[in-house]
Design brief:
By secondary structure, the chain is an alpha+beta fold. It has eight helices and 15 strands. The strands form four sheets. It has a seven-stranded mixed beta sheet with strand order 6-7-5-8-15-13-9. A hairpin with a 6-residue loop joins strand 10 and strand 11.
């Protein structure tokens, strides 16, 4: 059973009067920010909102803009990573459509009583100074799901089940191009050890060639001093995840190794949770009356470059869809017009038919044993995460056990 793409929600028409900003639905804006965040690689985040209006309208809608900003922040902050968040600042950029004057203000959204603070806004050349960082995450992960969480939504169950994996990713060691480097080192350096940003000649801008950096993550579970004793708990399901997924981030030349590794880890965590969330958004397909052995496939990640830059954003397509199906989401959510041949779709591939078999069911030695396993299962879901090409595909099986 295939689940068709439904993670794109149509935006309202933009030809509405400026005055209607006072009645703008902050929940819709927050949902839009969430969908855009799914499409962003590591190192790039939604910082806030911007508005274009006359000076009179801008003066009247300040309370509404603050309300929208806090709604966006609340939605984006639901991802439990990084664990240590502290104070969080979000930005409102206001553009006077008559005078073209720009006003930038920030709010500390972790404090509901915070007041607006002025912020400097500096323009830089197009994003041609950002370096690409790749990471292929190899997974072979089994997580028991506690029986008391079975009454929760599928989205919540998957997020809870993947939480230990997210912790494992966050605490892993990182090798940068095969080397263990200090967190304070600059990501890109010239052969003599100096900055790789180059020198500016008179009348000329810096010319920076984009570097491609590869990061490998290594688990350090056995090295931690906080090793905990095993716990015995009643489980009603098991989450199994194996294979490879593609992570990507973009960082500027002066970024440190520590910030780069953190950006890649956040991207891997975000893409894992986003795929599971996309699959489970339509809960109507998870009715108990259906066949107890139901196979669902999670989407594959595809990329496209932002026009005039070296930075790529992503979308997700399901098995049976083509790269052309991502043209509309890029236009609808990011406002960019692209052609199908501009989409990079070879970073991941869908699992083959042999990967669709659950490992428990495939071990059954007879048809009678297979029927017994199916009869005991209340519902069996096997979402499949797209794996990198030419490697084993990622299979995520979610098995509900008997009451």
């Amino acid at each position: 059973m295939r689940k068709k793409k439904n993670h794109l929600k149509k935006s309202p028409k933009s030809n509405v009067p400026v005055g209607s900003l006072t009645t703008c639905d902050e929940k819709w804006v927050a949902q839009h920010a969430k969908q855009v965040t799914r499409m962003l690689p590591g190192g790039i985040e939604v910082l806030g909102i911007f508005v274009v209006a006359s000076s009179e309208v801008l003066k009247d809608i300040q309370p509404k803009l603050r309300q929208i900003l806090f709604a966006v922040s609340k939605t984006l902050n639901r991802l439990p990573f990084p664990p240590e968040k502290g104070s969080i600042n979000r930005t409102i950029l206001q553009i006077d459509q008559t005078t073209r004057k720009l006003t930038c203000r920030t709010f500390e959204v972790s404090d509901l009583r915070s007041e607006a603070k002025p912020a400097d806004l500096k323009f830089q050349p197009v994003a041609n100074r950002w370096h690409q960082v790749n990471c292929r995450l190899c997974l072979d992960w089994k997580v028991p799901v506690a029986i008391e969480t079975l009454t929760a939504s599928l989205t919540k169950q998957l997020q809870t089940g993947l939480h230990p994996l997210c912790i494992e990713i966050w605490n892993s060691l990182a090798l940068v191009d095969g080397k263990l480097r200090d967190d304070d080192d600059q990501l890109i350096s010239s052969p003599d050890g100096s900055s790789a940003t180059g020198k500016k000649s008179k009348g000329r801008q810096d010319v920076v060639v984009q570097e491609v950096v590869n990061i490998d993550l290594c688990t350090q579970t056995m090295l931690t001093k906080e090793f905990k004793q095993p716990m015995v708990a009643k489980c009603g399901a098991q989450l199994s995840l194996r294979g490879i997924v593609q992570g990507r981030a973009y960082l500027h030349s002066k970024t440190t190794v520590g910030a780069t590794v953190q950006a890649v880890k956040l991207d891997l965590i975000r893409t894992l949770l986003s795929r599971c969330e996309i699959v489970s958004e339509d809960e109507s397909i998870y009715e108990h009356e259906q066949d107890p052995a139901t196979v669902l496939e999670t989407p594959m990640r595809v990329f496209v470059r932002l026009p005039g830059t070296t930075v790529s954003v992503c979308d997700y397509i399901f098995n049976g869809e083509s790269s052309g199906d991502s043209v509309e989401p890029f236009k609808e959510l990011l406002g960019i017009t692209i052609e199908t041949d501009q989409i990079e779709s070879d970073c991941e591939s869908f699992p083959g038919d042999e990967d669709l078999q659950d490992e428990q069911l495939s071990r059954c030695s007879s048809q009678n044993e297979l029927d017994i396993v199916k009869e005991r299962a209340r519902s069996y879901l096997a979402p499949l995460l797209g794996g990198a090409a030419a490697v084993a595909a990622v299979v995520m099986s979610y098995l509900y056990m008997g009451e």
